[in-house]
Amino acid sequence: MERHHDWQKRLTDYLLAAGRQPIEPGRFDCMLFAAGAVRVMTGIDLADDFRGRYTTLKGGLRVLKRLGYADHVALIDALLGDRVGWMALRSGDIAAVPGDDGTAAIGVVTGDLIRCLAANGGIGPVSLDAALYGWRIG
Fold it and tell me: Half-sphere exposure of 78 toward its Cβ, with a 13 Å CA cutoff?
């Protein structure tokens, strides 16, 4: 998967727009936020088969389990391949951070920060060294 030559501008524009969207499972949640970043950078929509198929996070988990994935992290593993440690991540890569509910939240790396959806809306920064692991994009 290759990034567009202007992926940085595309990602910046996407993050600015995404910061104004409310969290809505199945339409805009952490998994779909990260998939949207990959789509703008590469043109490949990793979430096309999942978007709009659930309205709660539990419903999303049920959809994933029916398709053979234990959870959203297992799906990302299948779509993006091997995980890497936080020190190997660079801008535009995808990272997993500890979520408020004990599961991994998914965000987008921008330099030494990971941009993650904030529970109260918008996008919040998390330090890159807080990443549990991540996946390289292109």
Answer: 12
pLDDT at 97: 97
**Residues in the chain, total:** 138
What's the rounded Cα separation, in Å, for the pair 81 and 135? 7
CA distance 97 to 134: 9
| pTM confidence score | 0.94
For the chain, helix (H) and strand (E) counts, in that order, are: 4, 5
Domains and CATH numbers, the chain: 7-135 (3.90.1720.10)
Q: Cβ distance 104 to 63 under 8 Å?
A: no
Evaluate whether 1 touches 37 at the Cβ level (below 8 Å). Answer: no
